[in-house]
Amino acid sequence: MIGLFMVVFNVQAQIPGAKAVLLKKAAAGGKIDVLIDNKLFASFLFAGQQEKPFLYPLKTASGVTVTRSFPLEKRAGERVDHPHHVGLWLNYESVNGLDFWNNSYAIPAERKSKYGWIRNVRVEAVKSGKQQGGLSYAANWEKQDGTVVLKEKTELIFSGNAHMRFIERRTTLRADKDTVFFKDVKDGMIGLRVRTELEMPLDKKEDFTTAGGDLVKASSREMGANGTYLTSEGLKGAAVWGTRANWCVLSAQVEQKKVAVAIIDHPKNPGYPTYWHARDYGLFAANPLGQSVFSKGSIHLNLKLAPGSSITFRYLVVLSEKETLDKDKLDKLAVDFSVR
């Protein structure tokens, strides 16, 4: 595991103007902060009471937060829906009939048996560096009674320069004692929930928080939403959902700055190029496994893993500020990523 982590770590080093990356473990445990150029970029949170490990918050080079604060914190002008949408995460809606995606504190105790946990997270390596830093961890995808369905091994590599931040994620899932079946469903696989400004501007009145924590009926346009999606296939806005592309980028003006967040798929991933589960209300996700849903039944995947077999998912997440993430730049990043 550590050997593979080091290979990935070394391969990703070539970023012009790369800044030093420092990883700091919290004294209380369950948290590792990632600092780039001595500024917080992200925190890896893996405390036992959480339903999954995730990265929260994610910040641009100047410190603009791109992730939604709910349910961990309160920020005025944000939605309080989907409490399972927290930070940047990876899981799936149907694994041997268990719903890992929608599990949260909001699920009543009498229904919890239908939901899976990703827990028993064990951090195996943490490394800071002059051009990049990273961590690797192991975890179990479990039933409520602790029965292990999948064994997870993940490497997270962090890097950045004056205007950009990068997260390279490599996750290997191995079936434990039983065959594991991933049913073709809508919710998966890598997900990011963004703040209001990065949402698409809609006129429908919905619940948003006020500075005092109360709820007010407003539209996302009224709350400052101005985001739009673009894929490698040239599709934009609402047309992106349910289509395939090897990258997708979400851009907006946030705190008077031009901010963009991109997710890049890898050719070795199952179902490449991925389908984009990119919603106007701020869910930005790539789901390569829900093929019958997105193709309206014309394509089926229904991935199966025999006991002891595994599959790997690779993604590159890019945050940019000032430097435009246009098609040419994202195509080049995708080509560079494809050979890693």
Describe this structure in words.
The chain has 340 residues and is mainly beta. The protein has one domain. The chain has three helices and 20 strands. The protein has helices at 2-11, 291-294, 327-338, and strands at 21-25, 31-36, 39-45, 54-58, 88-92, 117-127, 133-142, 148-160, 164-175, 180-182, 188-193, 206-209, 215-218, 228-231, 247-254, 257-265, 275-278, 283-287, 303-305, 310-321. The strands form five sheets. Strands 6-7-8-9-20-16-15-14 form an eight-stranded antiparallel sheet, with helices on one face. Strands 1-2-3-4 form a four-stranded antiparallel sheet, with no helix packed on it. The chain has a four-stranded antiparallel sheet with strand order 5-11-18-17, with no helix packed on it. Strand 3 (39-45) and strand 4 (54-58) form a beta hairpin. The longest helix is centred in the last third of the chain and has 12 residues, at 327-338. The mean pLDDT is 95.
